[in-house]
Structure to design on (783 residues):
């Protein structure tokens, strides 16, 4: 009973420290609440549609014009200009008006009439992979459709539609994206961003409070108040405050943000909550471990903020983890975000059960355990050295 | 006694250098962090394109024809068909476990239907929750599927007495030839490292500027520094920030040398041009930091928070991964307020395209406008020097 009261006292003190510093309030409340909304707003259109391209139609025939119309009709690209030369199209690219150029050769009809293959050049701006993807996809889809028509009219005149379909495409195929079916950018990146926000702001909060304590108490990591005497109680008490705040933030992201922006939500609520418990704990204990290195509270902003970018890549959400070098995989395992991002994506976007993310789930518990022990040892040493100083 | 302005500057710089040598944190931010970031990104994406992405196959037919198909697919660069599953749901569960990014499904009777000209249907399933892996595998699987169909019809045409080329032309009258401008091999390292590493350096600069300025107040040294600068805010800022500018510029040069000389990333505009752009962006980031600190009246922690939030958003709003043109008009306008957006546009113009820099003049002007921002806050600094105190 006494222990419980002690833990609650420490938790309450920690909450007061958070509220006293505007910087900490900003990171612990403002960022987890508003940043997901901002990011979702940035990516809300999910895909790039109607990428502006220019066409250089050197053939100028009925067929080539038909092809241009077919490209324009695809959702991926929009033909905004008909240029007389590649140079003119290039000029438009220089000005940033178009992101791709489709060049139809002047012998387009002749090659086709001779029964040879006509080659259409597609020049894609590599400023962004999505421009390239859209331009190429639009041109390819248009060419496949026109190919089918050409083949049908040339070789299978008089056949029934069914015969024609079989002859032009003897083996049919279906492409089905199982999860995140529209290939949306928000649906792909937001889960990772939300998990990272939780970890990074929690670490910043703990680090800034820890640094503030050191500043106020001449380099001591703990206030001199009497309630700080048992290292286990200190670790539990400090993390209890963050645990309560961040579980609420996690639920807010899982429900409100996901709902407002229509992100994938195949996940079961209690699976998610069960998965978040070790994550928030691991983040909290890691925050205490890291804050032991921080002597000035502003230092942790410098150290932790820029780490978010490499951590996003370590999680394997954008750069596939099967292509991450072994060394960085091990480094990634030091951070809870790596497991959490992968687990959360699978739970929320793919409807995985706790058993299917057991690797991540166990990983997070191990991290929580290890960082917990380090935190306790850190405070034990701290309390110990304080006793020695008094003597 | 009136001191010469250069003498004052010299004294300020020496003071800064002494400061750097006393605090390991400075060395971490200005040297170790940029070097580590550079090493991290070039080693992470060193392969350029992720090869051999794990994929699976559900071959319910299991005939020699379908086995040929599996071999065709496995030979593709990005695909590694290392897992076999006996049923569809087994493969789906493997995807949920994160074992594979995609799988091919060949239903029972495919070969029989193909031989009997009854148009069998095969399917491939990808996981677009991992966008890069999913779309790379989609490309491979689609090509393979097209090839199977084309292989069958080509055989028919060859059997009818056509030559190989003619048969190919008959199967596929119009072919698309892709020419990615500037990054011919679709190297992801070229596409991402090129912006993200300088972007991280700019983020560090942005947070570091209010940090170092704020330390004067925190250590209650601001009056001393102000007097040393002859009660001139401009001189104080120049004295304070130029040593950092130099060090960060050297780091930027290191990145450029590694990218363009060592790794041979495409750079048409030349290394020095890219470095010039990098230095301009460092100055813009510093100017932004100075502006925020002045505006918030010397509230060091709060200005660092604002700068870090601003800097983190710039990675998204710069349009490097998700194009700005697909964002809401409000955000398209807001993108102008982020130095990284201009670095990205200038990089595309200079390194990838190698066009004249005149085509990117709006970005140059925007960066120069950033440099003017501190002027707006000079009076606020004067006030802060006299009255502001560090708030614990």
């Amino acid at each position: 009973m006494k222990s419980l009261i002690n833990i609650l006292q420490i938790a309450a003190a920690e909450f007061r420290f958070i509220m006293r510093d505007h910087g900490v309030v900003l990171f612990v409340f403002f960022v987890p609440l508003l940043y997901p909304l901002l990011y979702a707003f940035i990516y809300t259109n999910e895909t790039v549609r109607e990428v502006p391209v220019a066409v250089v139609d050197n053939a100028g025939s009925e067929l080539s014009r038909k092809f241009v119309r077919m490209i324009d009709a695809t959702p991926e690209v929009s033909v905004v200009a008909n240029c007389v030369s590649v140079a003119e199209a290039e000029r438009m690219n220089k000005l940033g008006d178009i992101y791709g150029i489709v060049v139809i050769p002047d012998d387009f009809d002749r090659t086709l009439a001779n029964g040879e293959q006509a080659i259409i050049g597609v020049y894609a701006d590599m400023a962004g992979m999505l421009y390239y993807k859209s331009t190429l996809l639009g041109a390819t889809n248009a060419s496949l459709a026109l190919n089918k028509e050409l083949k049908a009219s040339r070789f299978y005149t008089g056949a029934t539609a069914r015969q024609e379909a079989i002859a032009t495409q003897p083996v049919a195929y279906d492409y089905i994206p199982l999860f995140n079916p529209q290939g949306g950018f928000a649906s792909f990146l937001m889960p990772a961003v939300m998990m990272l926000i939780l970890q990074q702001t929690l670490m910043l909060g703990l680090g800034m409070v820890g640094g503030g304590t050191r500043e106020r108490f001449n380099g001591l990591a703990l206030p001199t108040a009497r309630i700080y005497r048992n290292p286990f109680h200190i670790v539990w008490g400090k993390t209890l405050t963050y645990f309560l705040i961040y579980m609420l933030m996690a639920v807010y992201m899982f429900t409100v943000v996901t709902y407002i922006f229509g992100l994938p939500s195949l996940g079961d609520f209690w699976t998610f909550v069960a998965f978040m418990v070790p994550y928030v704990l691991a983040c909290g204990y890691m925050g205490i471990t890291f804050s032991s290195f921080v002597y000035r509270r502003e230092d942790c902003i410098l150290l932790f903020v820029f780490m978010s970018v490499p951590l996003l890549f370590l999680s394997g959400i954008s750069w596939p983890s099967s292509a991450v070098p072994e060394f960085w995989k091990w480094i990634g395992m030091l951070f809870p975000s790596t497991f959490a991002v992968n687990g959360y994506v699978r739970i929320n976007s793919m409807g995985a059960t706790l058993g299917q993310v057991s690797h991540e789930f166990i990983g997070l518990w191990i991290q929580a355990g290890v960082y917990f022990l380090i935190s306790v040892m850190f405070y034990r040493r701290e309390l110990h050295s304080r006793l020695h100083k008094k003597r | 006694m009136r001191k010469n302005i250069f003498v004052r500057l010299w004294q300020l710089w020496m003071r800064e250098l002494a400061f750097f040598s006393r605090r390991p944190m400075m060395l971490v931010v200005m040297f170790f962090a940029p070097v580590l970031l550079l090493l991290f990104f070039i080693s992470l994406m060193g392969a350029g394109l992720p090869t051999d992405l794990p994929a699976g196959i559900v071959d319910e037919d299991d005939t020699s024809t379908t086995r040929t198909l599996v071999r065709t697919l496995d030979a593709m660069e990005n695909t590694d068909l290392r897992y076999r599953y006996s049923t569809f749901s087994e493969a789906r569960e493997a995807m949920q476990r994160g074992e594979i990014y995609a799988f091919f499904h060949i239903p029972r009777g495919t070969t029989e239907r193909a031989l009997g000209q009854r148009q069998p249907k095969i399917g491939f399933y990808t996981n677009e929750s991992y966008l890069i892996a999913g779309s790379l595998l989609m490309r491979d699987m689609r090509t393979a599927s097209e090839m199977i169909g084309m292989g069958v019809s080509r055989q028919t045409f060859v059997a009818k007495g056509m030559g190989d080329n003619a048969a190919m032309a008959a199967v596929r009258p119009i072919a698309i030839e892709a020419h990615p401008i500037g990054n011919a091999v679709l190297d992801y390292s070229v596409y991402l490292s090129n912006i993200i590493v300088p972007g991280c350096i700019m983020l560090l600069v942005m947070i570091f500027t209010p940090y170092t300025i704020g330390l004067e107040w925190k250590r209650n040294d601001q009056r001393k520094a102000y007097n040393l600068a002859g009660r001139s805010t401009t001189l104080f800022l120049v004295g304070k920030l130029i040593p950092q500018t130099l060090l960060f510029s050297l780091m930027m040069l290191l990145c450029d040398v590694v990218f363009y000389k060592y790794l041979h990333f495409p750079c048409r505009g030349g290394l020095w041009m890219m470095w010039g752009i990098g230095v301009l962006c460092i100055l813009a980031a510093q100017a932004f930091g100075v502006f925020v600190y002045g505006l918030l009246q010397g509230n060091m922690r709060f200005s660092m928070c604002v700068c870090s939030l601003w800097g983190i958003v710039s990675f998204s709003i710069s349009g490097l991964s998700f194009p700005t043109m697909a964002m809401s008009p409000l955000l398209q306008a807001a993108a102008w307020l982020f130095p990284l957006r201009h670095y990205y546009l200038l990089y595309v113009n200079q390194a990838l395209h190698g066009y004249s820099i005149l085509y990117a003049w709006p970005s140059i002007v925007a960066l120069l406008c950033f440099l003017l921002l501190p002027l707006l806050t000079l009076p606020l600094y004067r006030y802060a020097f006299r009255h502001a105190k560090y708030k614990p």
Summary: The longest helix of chain A spans residues 358-390.
